[in-house]
């Protein structure tokens, strides 16, 4: 009992992590899920978008200029810039698994034994296997999301520890006491780990804010009474000393946590800006500043003061509704996200109604507002590869689902006290676990499908490159610069799952829903005869990207070189416009005449 009270004032993180890692069921489900979800990707090499300019990013420092300094500095210690797919992919899976464990410990510090270990296992499994991660995992070094998820979780653990230490201090010294040095250190540690997470991918700031609000919401859901003022003396005496949540000062505690969170976030943003300046100066990267899209908050917020900003915001909100709502009909990760949102909303509303808890009613929409706040910053609907919050929200929905099922069945057992009803309750719990197992299975299947499509795209690209190189080497002087024009189309048979055809029943369901808001809304995602573009990254081509990356086709030439074909990129940018105009009447690859020698350079037209 004493140990339990201790963990409520200063969280026993070592004990919680040891309990999670030492549980065979938890680790078995998590490791099996990670193997099923990423096994194909780890063992099947592909070269895709951002793989060819890895030296430009990590050796020259372009990635550091845009604020993603963690991998740049890490490359100074261990070799990352060279293309080594198995090693980096496998390391990322290990880090994601570690991140899932830390996130589990974070929520365990709130729910504790109110959720069985199976619930934490499926939280971790749903998080790790979320197919939306495949949208970013195919990029080189996965944009550092594995380190980002882990750092973000550790940062929130520091915030949780700060919250518990402040609560303990208030209990012993009064509400007016100033935070002591250890508490300030914990808050500073939270800011530092958030700074590291943002140094991997700036969208982790969004996840951190949303995660902090979900943590506070979890506390409200776990509360067992309405408020301090409503307790009678009799109930106060009968209440266990080690109750999960101490209600006195909870409202003040929420304000304190939000204020501390704002301070930690501000400190992390300042540290990020300073780090960019320091790295730029120390490594002499000033010459790259014109080559990169700067990602400072002030520059990204500039769209809000432009003419027509309000109308643009309305359209952004409509597009967000389509991406993260309507596409649930066709895209599994969005469907799971919507289902989790329903579970989170229902459980929260039950808490609001039964506990008359206004704070829970406030925290719920605020958490989702924080999750989608990037659209207000960037001035566009959040891309799937930047939606790092979504896997955590899906996992959070799993936690609340298990919490609700166990809570209701336990209440029913206590009320009836019949052996037959006890068996029924165990059956209900078993069905709930079976439902979660089906979700994890489907996510692993979906994740593997997208990785398989990525491999098929890569094989088709290699076949195309080999054929073009053969034609060039046979009939042309390959010492001349080559300019690629036109648009390469991935065979539709490979990427058809990334689209919803116009005759599909899913299309009509989506169309009916969007027409309620805007009759032309869904049409904005039409892609010619292919249908509605649903999955984003799976439909992108490394050849088409390499043709215009960094304002030239040098990256496509590198892609040729990585497959044994030596070509020369055109260094004269002005010739690209001339070549595009010249190629308008040329046949498209693979028709005869798609390659033309213009004397000073060669045109290859897709």
Protein model, in words:
This protein has 26 helices and six strands. The model is unreliable at 1-9 and 225-246 (pLDDT under 50). It is 64% helix and 3% strand. It has 606 residues and is mainly α. The longest helix is centred in the last third of the chain and has 57 residues, at 419-475. The strands form two sheets. The protein has a four-stranded mixed β-sheet, with helices on both faces. The protein has helices at 2-7, 13-21, 24-43, 54-58, 62-65, 69-77, 85-111, 117-128, 134-137, 145-173, 181-200, 204-222, 233-238, 250-282, 297-300, 309-324, 332-355, 358-371, 374-378, 389-416, 419-475, 492-495, 505-515, 542-548, 554-561, 574-582; strands at 481-485, 499-500, 532-533, 568-569, 595-597, 602-605. Keywords: Membrane, Transferase, Transmembrane, Transmembrane helix.
Question: How would the blueprint of this fold be written?
Answer:
Elements: H1 2-7, H2 13-21, H3 24-43, H4 54-58, H5 62-65, H6 69-77, H7 85-111, H8 117-128, H9 134-137, H10 145-173, H11 181-200, H12 204-222, H13 233-238, H14 250-282, H15 297-300, H16 309-324, H17 332-355, H18 358-371, H19 374-378, H20 389-416, H21 419-475, E1 481-485, H22 492-495, E2 499-500, H23 505-515, E3 532-533, H24 542-548, H25 554-561, E4 568-569, H26 574-582, E5 595-597, E6 602-605
Parallel strand pairs: 1-4, 1-6
Antiparallel strand pairs: 2-3, 5-6
């Amino acid at each position: 009992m004493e140990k339990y009270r201790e963990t409520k004032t200063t969280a026993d993180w070592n004990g919680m992590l040891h309990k999670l890692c030492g549980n065979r069921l938890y680790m078995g489900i998590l490791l099996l899920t990670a193997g099923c979800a990423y096994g194909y990707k780890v063992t099947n090499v592909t070269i895709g978008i951002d793989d060819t300019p890895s030296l430009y990013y990590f050796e020259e420092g372009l990635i550091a200029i845009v604020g993603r300094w963690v991998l740049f500095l890490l490359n100074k210690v261990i070799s990352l810039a060279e293309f080594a797919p198995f090693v980096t992919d496998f390391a990322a899976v290990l880090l994601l698994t570690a991140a899932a464990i830390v996130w589990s410990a974070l929520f365990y510090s709130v729910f504790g034994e109110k959720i069985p270990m199976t619930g934490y296992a499926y939280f971790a499994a749903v998080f790790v296997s979320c197919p939306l991660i495949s949208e970013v995992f195919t990029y080189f070094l996965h944009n550092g999301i594995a380190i980002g998820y882990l750092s973000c979780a550790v940062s929130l653990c520091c915030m949780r520890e700060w919250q518990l230490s402040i609560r303990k201090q208030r209990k012993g010294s009064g509400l007016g006491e100033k935070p002591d040095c250890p508490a300030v250190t914990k808050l500073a540690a939270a800011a530092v780990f958030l700074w590291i997470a943002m140094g991997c991918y700036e969208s982790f700031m969004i996840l951190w804010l949303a995660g902090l609000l979900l943590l506070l919401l979890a506390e409200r859901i776990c509360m067992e009474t309405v408020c301090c003022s409503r307790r009678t003396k009799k109930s106060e005496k009968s209440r266990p000393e080690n109750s999960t949540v101490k209600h006195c000062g909870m409202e003040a505690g929420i304000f304190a946590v939000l204020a501390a969170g704002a301070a930690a976030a501000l400190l992390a943003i300042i540290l990020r800006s300073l780090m960019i300046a320091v790295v730029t100066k120390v490594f002499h990267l000033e010459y790259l500043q014109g080559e990169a899209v700067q990602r400072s908050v002030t520059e990204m917020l500039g769209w809000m003061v432009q003419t027509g900003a309000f109308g643009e915001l309305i359209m952004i909100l409509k597009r967000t509704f389509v991406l993260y709502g309507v596409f649930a009909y066709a895209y599994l990760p969005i469907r799971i996200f919507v289902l989790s949102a329903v579970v989170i909303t229902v459980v929260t509303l039950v808490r609001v109604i039964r506990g008359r808890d206004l704070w829970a009613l406030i925290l719920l929409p605020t958490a989702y507002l924080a999750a989608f706040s990037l659209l207000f910053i960037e001035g566009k609907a959040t891309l799937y590869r930047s939606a790092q919050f979504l896997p955590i929200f899906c996992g959070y929905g799993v936690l609340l689902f298990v919490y609700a099922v166990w809570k209701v069945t336990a209440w029913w057992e206590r009320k009836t006290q019949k052996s037959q009803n006890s068996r029924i309750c165990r059956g209900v719990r078993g069905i709930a676990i079976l439902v979660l197992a089906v979700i994890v299975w489907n996510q692993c299947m979906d994740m593997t499908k997208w990785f398989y499509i990525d491999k098929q795209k890569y094989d088709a690209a290699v076949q195309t490159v080999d054929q073009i190189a053969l034609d060039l080497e046979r009939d042309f002087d390959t010492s001349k610069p080559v300019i690629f024009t036109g648009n390469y189309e991935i065979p539709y048979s490979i990427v058809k799952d990334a689209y919803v055809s116009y005759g599909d029943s899913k299309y009509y369901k989506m169309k009916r829903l969007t027409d309620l808001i805007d009759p032309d809304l869904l049409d904005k995602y039409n892609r010619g005869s292919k249908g509605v573009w649903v999955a984003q990254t799976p439909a992108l081509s490394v050849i088409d990207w390499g043709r215009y990356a960094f304002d030239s086709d040098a990256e496509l030439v590198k892609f040729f070189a990585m497959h044994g074909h030596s070509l020369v990129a055109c260094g004269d940018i002005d010739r690209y416009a001339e070549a595009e105009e010249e190629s308008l009447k040329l046949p498209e690859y693979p028709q005869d005449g798609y390659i033309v020698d213009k004397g000073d350079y060669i045109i290859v037209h897709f």
